[in-house]
Automatic annotation (TrEMBL):
This is Adenine phosphoribosyltransferase. Pathway: Purine metabolism; AMP biosynthesis via salvage pathway; AMP from adenine: step 1/1. It comes from Sphingomonas astaxanthinifaciens DSM 22298. Residues 35-151 form the Phosphoribosyltransferase domain. It is found in: Cytoplasm. The gene is apt.
């Protein structure tokens, strides 16, 4: 499946969640088995060095992360919204457009020196991915990069990740918000 065919599977919903926003909905891509398989395969091909773990970010990042972990032959680390994990956790706050939120992971989810690839469905401002990277680094592991199905480069997330030394790649880009 070509990149243009995969891109065509992402639905755009105008004015969601508020006027002026063009919401890029990957759930339509996830519904298509050939499109999903091709997207994961093509995203995995951007990874040059096998990580020890893929860190999937709550919630659609779990789908992308699971696919990449299976394709790359490594484990899956869950980065969840705070309060969702049952064991002892470490947490990081990150900025939202109108406030803050908090991500957490188990304290023993990764070991010092392990290489962890961060995965999510969409990269906007980069706040969520940067919070995940801080968690991985606090645990002593190395951020091996970050991968996304969709990048909204106008919002600066890929530039913010690269400024932190994080190798970043996305399967497709959409202009605007």
């Amino acid at each position: 499946m070509s990149p243009d065919q995969i891109r065509a599977l992402v639905r755009t919903i105008p004015d969601h969640p508020r006027p002026g926003i063009m919401f890029r909905d990957v759930t339509t891509l996830l519904l298509d088995p050939a499109g999903l398989a091709a997207a994961i395969d093509q995203l995995a091909e951007t990874v040059t060095h096998k990580p020890d773990l893929v860190a999937g970010i709550d919630a659609r990042g779990f789908v992308v992360g699971t696919g990449l972990a299976l394709r790359l032959g490594c484990g899956l680390l869950l980065v969840r919204k705070d309060g969702k994990l049952p064991g002892e956790t470490i947490a990081e706050d990150y900025a939202l457009e109108y406030g803050t939120d908090r991500l957490a992971m188990h304290v023993d989810a990764c070991a010092p020196g392990q290489k962890v690839l961060i995965a999510d469905d969409l990269l906007a401002t980069g706040g969520t991915a940067l919070a995940a990277a801080r968690l991985v680094r606090r645990a002593g592991a190395e951020v091996a990069g970050a991968r996304f199905l969709v990048d909204l480069p106008d919002l600066g997330g890929s530039a913010a990740l690269r400024a932190e030394g994080i190798d970043t790649a996305s399967l497709m880009e959409f202009a605007g918000h």
